Amino acid sequence: MKIVRYRLPNNKVEYGIWEGGTIRALAASPFRGIRETERHIQLGDVHLLAPCVPSKILAIGASYRSHCLEMGQPILEEPMVFFKPSTSVVGPEDNLVRPAGVKRFDYEAEVGVVIKRRAFKVPRNRALDYVLGYTCCNDVSVRDWQSVGANWQWARAKGSDTFSPIGPCIETEGDPFNMWVESRLNGDRKQRGSTSDLIWDIPAMISYLSETITLLPGDVIETGTPSGVGPMQAGDVVEITVAGIGTLRNYVVQG
After folding, report:
1. 162 and 204 belong to one structural domain
2. Cross-strand partners of 183
3. 50, 51, 55, 173: which sits with the fewest CB atoms below 10 Å from its CB?
């Protein structure tokens, strides 16, 4: 089941189930339970938004073995966690603003995990019970600000406005242990990897995070990126695809 969030021509925002070229409207937020209506809307008549409104995004760094090798980093003993604010979220077909003066503005293709209900101190063997589904994410990053010379400004480097595109939908099915994710820049494939290459699997991430941080409905966990990260320039089109979910497309503009 593919859950979308969209804006109607009258500016009303709703959730629905994406079925080919149509959307079946939901009676309420999917975080209150899936209640379908009989109302159908043409996909072309709405504007797709980010499929959820997270209170926060929790991102895991250096989580793919291939990316650690690419960056020359050792395999960590515990996940490296950082926050991204809700104000950084944009949806499919939205612009990514490249700040003036930056030298390296990178894409990072990631599988996003969308939390279904409040989670705190969740054991690994129950972690997937708290997942509504999965989505495509791009952990946009300014490497200049992320470096030692910039005093490791990760909050700015990864949490500035438009740096967290999410979408186009939340897929409630799928195998979290073997999801293929890839990025394309102007049509050329740059990354491809599977969650089977994760150092910590998705249930382990949920359990680790919820040990000390309360996860709320709609929160997103960005699970990390495989090798192949690279820069984007103004005018570029970047696409993140997760097999079985869809493609998140965004456009780079100069700030």
Report:
1. yes
2. 191, 240
3. 173
